[in-house]
Amino acid sequence: MENTVELDRNKAGNPFVPSRQSKWSKFSRVGIWFAVIGPGLMVMLADTDAGSVITAAQSGAQWGFAMILPQLLLIPILYIVQEITVRLGVVTGKGHGELIREHFGMSWAMLSVVTLFVACVGALVTEFAGIAGVAEMFHIPIWVSVPCVTVLLVMVGLSGSYRRVEKIGLAVGMLELLFIVAAIMAKPDISQMAHGLASFPFGQGNYTFLLAANVGAVIMPWMVFYQQGAVIDKRLFGKHLRLLRWDTKIGAVLTQIIMISVVIVTAVGIHETSPNATLNDVKDISRALMPVLGKTSGVILFGLGMAGASFLAAIVVSLAGAWGLTEALGMKRSLDMPFKKAKGFYSVYTLAHIGGATIVLIGIPLVSLMIDVEVMNAALLPIVLGFLILLEVKALPKEHRMSGSHKYIAWALTGITIAFGLYTAGITLIGAMG
Fold first, then answer.
1. What sign results for the dihedral spanned by CA atoms 293, 294, 297, 300?
2. Separation CA 26–CA 114 (nearest Å)
3. Between 142-157 and 162-173, two packed helices, what is the crossing angle to 10 degrees?
4. Strand, coil or helix: what is 218?
5. Residue 339: inside a domain, yes or no?
6. Residue among 285, 217, 234 at smallest CA distance from 61
7. Cα 85 to the chain's mean position, in Å?
8. Structurally, how many domains does the chain consist of?
9. Has residue 65 been placed in a domain?
10. How does pLDDT run across 267-281, given as a tens digit for each residue?
11. What is the CA 140 to chain-centroid distance, rounded?
């Protein structure tokens, strides 16, 4: 559905969105493009966070190029999920938690918030663990790196400007492009890649477990809450929907190219040369890649890429948690508001960082933790995607809902993803009981 309708959000009761006489009308087409894009790129680059990178690295190390195909298949699913999110935001002018509370009641809203909270805690721990791992590669102790980054992240969030936060996040997130450089430097064999694309060893060894982890690494609960909150905080509305779709499409392709790059570089650098290599932390992965990338490049490319992914994701995850909780509780929330007007929002954002940093300082094995977190995300997908599809039907006017083949394709893909999430939850529960 490509038609767009300009909405006057002030009449809809949204205090954060301007009326039809928007300042965007003063810009040229190029100016509008650069003014609108951002939420999709932010959330998609954050999607390739420390946990996702580690999961992709472990997948490439153990299964080589056979893990490329799942990454490609996840692109349309990722776009469909986030496009619905964008539409809900620009059409209703309300956050995800607020819509669930209005249409399903406070109890269901709190269930969604609990789901979000669990996912955010897991994600933030992995981000700080990733930052700590990179710092240790450069001989910076964890008790120095983690507290310093925590203070910096809190300062960014309290700066009082959504646009400033977005610019900082995108600038740092672009470091993830170094993973693509690393994949090119690895010089993968094209014929072997083609063979890997044609293989799908479902049910063999731990392939299914890592497949579930990769699904959870690509479609995460906090992404829905973040992008819907971001388009509102950025004061975007109906007439920007087409550009926001392109923002989301480009981001969905880019994040999966980055994931595939990590799979490729570890498939070449570890699976083909040291298949039994022990991967307990970022340093182990970087060390294993040195024969292919070189001693200096192995450290710098993987380290800086991981640092950019972790820092950006920490911002996005904590904002998603803050938006989701305050939306469900009906509290004021906006990065453009001063602290005294949105104390609850900023407090959640700050405490999220402090909590994640504290858990990491205790000391935990990085790789196994991150993969477990991504499997947990896959298990939570039925709740997240279930609410998303129901809201698309209940919260949007008929002209803004999916229709025809688009609707049935979207339902089928999300249904498959939900079924996979239920399967993951089942095998995870059985594994825990066993």
1. positive
2. 42
3. 140
4. helix
5. yes
6. 285
7. 13
8. 1
9. yes
10. 887 876 666 565 666
11. 27
CB 244 within 8 A of CB 36: yes
pLDDT digits (tens, 9 = 90+) for 289-327: 777 777 777 778 888 888 999 999 999 999 999 998 898
CB 40 within 8 A of CB 173: no
DSSP code of residue 270:
I
User: Which residues have a Cβ under 8 Å from the Cβ of 5 and sit 6 or more positions away?
Assistant: 238, 239, 399, 400
- Reading the block at residue 301, the tokens are 């490319």
- CA 342: distance to chain centroid? 25
3-state secondary structure of 285: helix
Q: Cβ contacts of residue 67 below 8 Å, gap of 6+?
A: 56, 59, 60, 196, 210, 214, 263, 267
The 10 Å Cβ neighbour count of residue 190 is 8
3-state secondary structure of 303: helix
Handedness of CA 311, 315, 317, 321 (dihedral sign): positive
**For 332, how many CA atoms within 13 A lie in the half-sphere containing its CB?**
11
- What CATH number is associated with residue 342? 1.20.1740.10
The pLDDT value given to residue 159: 85
Cα separations in angstroms, 244 against 39, 77, 226: 8, 17, 14
DSSP-derived secondary structure for 357-420: HHHHHH---HHHHHHHHHHHHHHHHHHHHHHHHHHHHHTS-GGGS--HHHHHHHHHHHHHHHHH
Domain holding 47, by residue range, is: 36-395+405-433
Contact 349, 323 (CB under 8 A): no
- CB atoms under 10 Å from CB of 147, counted, come to 14
Looking at residue 365, its pLDDT comes to: 57
336 located within any domain: yes
Q: How far apart are CA 132 and CA 139, in angstroms?
A: 10
Whether 4 and 236 have beta carbons less than 8 Å apart is answered as no
CB 302, CB 282: distance < 8 Å: yes
Q: Please give the DSSP secondary-structure letter assigned to residue 19.
A: -
Domain annotation covers residue 382: yes
Average pLDDT in the 279-289 region? 70
Share of the chain above pLDDT 90, in %: 26
Question: CA-CA-CA-CA torsion for 336, 337, 338, 341, nearest 10 degrees?
Answer: -170
Asked if pLDDT for residue 7 goes beyond 90, the answer is no
Question: Where do we find the tokens 């509305």?
Answer: 237
